[in-house]
Amino acid sequence: MPGPTHDDQHDGGPFIPGRPGPKPPPVEEPTEPREPLPPKKDQSGPEVYTATGEHLDADPTVRAQKGSRLTNAQGTRLYDTDHSLKAGERGPVLLQDHHLREKITHFDHERIPERVVHARGAAAHGVFRGYGTASSLSKAAFLGKDVETPVFVRFSTVLGNRGSADTVRDTRGFATKFYTSEGVFDLVGNNIPVFFIQDAIKFPDVIHAGKPHPDREIPQAQSAHDTFWDFVSLHTEATHHTLWNMSDRGIPRSYRTMEGFGIHTFRLVDAEGGTTLVKFHWKPKLGVHSMMWEEAQITSGVDPDFHRRDLADAIEAGAFPEWELGIQTFPDTPEQTFEGIDLLDPTKIVPEEWAPVQPIGLMALTANPSNYFAETEQVAFHVGHLVPGIDITDDPLLAGRLFSYIDTQITRLGGPNFAQLPINRTHAPVNDMLRDGMHQTGVHSGVAPYQPNSLDGGCPFFAGAGEGAYVEAPVTVPQASKVRAAPASFADHTSHPRRFYLSLSAVEREHVIAAYTFELSKCYEDAIKQRNLRVLADIDPGLCAGVAAGLGLPAPEPSAPLADVEPSPALSQLGHTWPTDGRVIGIIADENSDLAALSSLRSTVHDSGMVPLVIAPHGGELTGNGGPVLAQRTFANARSVEFDAVLIAGAPGMGDDAYGARDVKAAQSAGGGNVDPRVLLLVSEVYRHAKALGAWGGGADVLAAAGCPQGGAGIVVSDDPQAVLAQVTELLGAHRVWDRFPPGETVAS
Ligand code: HDD
């Protein structure tokens, strides 16, 4: 139903006291889709059902907005909500104004506690389609061939609060709710395959260490402070996760280019009760890509919502992000190890070369939420939301999570009935015996919510043989004394981080060294820096020496012989070619550019699934030679971090605005000639961040003025814009121009 309009409010209505004057003029709304986005695909979310299995629209009581007239919460129409009830226009406000009180009271209670971790997030609806390849291992219906299941996925950072920046260095949450025909299955994972701790009882401790210092509450959304580095150096089981955080994985380019991991080992159960141990992996179709640290820092300032915007824009443009779900499988032996790796230890991974990730389904995110609070904020994940065919293992980290997730929702969502919120409702029929409690929206019938009963006809009945969830896999629990202790295999804290480091390319290792150096340099206590160097010495002497040099401290010797491990090439982000869908190409132009050629170039970029953004001296249209061409960005609001590659159409001159004009002198004295200094900054950053650059028709002069070497790696100059674009697109397949990092800077290990 279309929303209310001004006409609605005034049509035929009587004169309303307090409502000011004449009918306002109709508001002119744009009718064309915004450039450069193509028309929206259908963005309606998945069908939503009530707790009793009825379609949401069939239940008028749960729809928040019906009818076109403004009402109070009881549905009584209001003629004014802009003025308090007063004794005369200049007199005191009357206590009897219950409408004022209702409005303000509701506002006072609009906020709920943010998540204690993963507070900052963004989400989307989508669909998962099973390949059927897991059906021999799991009886879960949603894994069947071509079975389509609605999903809701929430991505998040861990440490920052709800208003923090997206591009901080941190682990990212990757939580997926599958609304399967057999109930909800939640896969609550991260973009890093290991965790800081091995036992859930340490979770409050590690989070206290990572959160801002309790005295001044700084720094926000950062691990670069004393308590974090104090914790991880005193708890060396955290080294593996910390190393991943300090790698490029800690600063993803986009949620769309992140892997996801279930981390724990789970147990699949087939129709005959046979079991297999598995680890879940999400593999992004666009590849795994990261930002450079300087980009991430700039982005935190110029666009703190970068990841949230990127996800929403891609979906709105119809470039639906996709991930394949895969599993590594291991025999379910009593030892629960694979090639000597303890599968119950969440700080360890099994290299993909040893146990390949086998694809079992495809997920596409196809619709943005229509209301952030109702969906993204109120969604409640729980690792205990399992369906028949997927079971847990005895990983002690998972055990604590099974308690924590349901518990936290009671504080966050105000009571035990959060499963009735629309976003959390299962799509399977519900007939539980849970009753009453805060915010109960179900109107239960019957008198006997217990089983067995003789008063409600015995209803509800138990599931038939083989149908139910929570049919525990027949695992033998060893006879043992009660202990507060970890198994001996949990004590290896060095071999897995060492394998990860050795698996990285030279430039990725440099990034790790730079990240450790940056973070530790922010610590005040030298003892903490030195203790962390001692941890690094046992991982890799080259890594330790690099960080020590950056900190100006001596590099300690390893405390024990280094672990003898083989690298796992799958862990490096380099050396692959990826699709370029959704990549953003900035095109710098002005009135003097060949605008006809620019128009046709934009179409080519668009048709190949990428996003062309013209960057001009001013907003609106460029109307020169062959125009008009609409500008999507200006020299004043474009920053390099937004673009995956930049093309220069001619030799754009100065911007028309005051800032550009004022800085003419600065540009000229810096050797930039008549090139706008903001263009020089943009191009030089793009070059420094190892992104592809292309130019034609005088654009080479801009490259030179920005300090980009002629003929340098990833710099394409030609008279033919389409030829430039073709080469730049090819370069984009590798994400960055890695050759721009000089060889020989390899860090020895
Ligand atoms: Fe957790 C939220 C992922 C260990 C306790 N966790 C939360 C979210 C993700 C993860 C993605 C955000 C869900 C959302 O978007 O709403 N957590 C993990 C992973 C872990 C992990 C991958 C280790 C493998 N978590 C973990 C432990 C505990 C918790 C050991 C407690 C003992 N996590 C929580 C929580 C949160 C949460 C406090 C906060 C908000 C929420 O649950 O709903 O219960």
Outline:
Residues 1-11, 31-44 have a biased composition (Basic and acidic residues). Residues 17-28 have a biased composition (Pro residues). The protein is an alpha+beta fold.
Question: What characteristics describe this protein?
Answer:
Catalase_haem_BS, six-stranded parallel β-sheet, Rossmann fold, binds CIS-heme D hydroxychlorin gamma-spirolactone, heme, alpha+beta, peroxidase, 20 strands, Catalase HpII,  Chain A, domain 1, disordered N terminus, Hemocyanin, N-terminal domain, EC 1.11.1.6
What does it look like?
By secondary structure, the chain is α+β, with helices and mostly antiparallel strands. Among the domains are: 121-216 and 258-424, Beta Barrel (Catalase HpII,  Chain A, domain 1), CATH 2.40.180; 494-571, Hemocyanin, N-terminal domain (Up-down Bundle), CATH 1.20.1370.20; 584-732, Rossmann fold, CATH 3.40.50. The chain is built from 19 helices and 20 strands. The strands form four sheets. Strands 1, 2, 3, 4, 5, 6, 7, 8, 11 and 12 form a ten-stranded antiparallel beta sheet that branches. The chain has a six-stranded parallel beta sheet with strand order 17-14-13-18-19-20, sandwiched between helices. The protein has a two-stranded antiparallel ribbon with strand order 9-10. Strand 9 and strand 10 (341-342) form a beta hairpin. Bound molecules: CIS-heme D hydroxychlorin gamma-spirolactone. CIS-heme D hydroxychlorin gamma-spirolactone is lined by residues 115-118, 121, 154, 156, 173, 175, 188-190, 195, 200, 203, 263, 346, 379-381, 397, 400-401, 404-405, 408. Residues 115-118, 121, 154, 156, 173, 175, 188-190, 195, 200, 203, 263, 346, 379-381, 397, 400-401, 404-405, 408 line the site of CIS-heme D hydroxychlorin gamma-spirolactone.
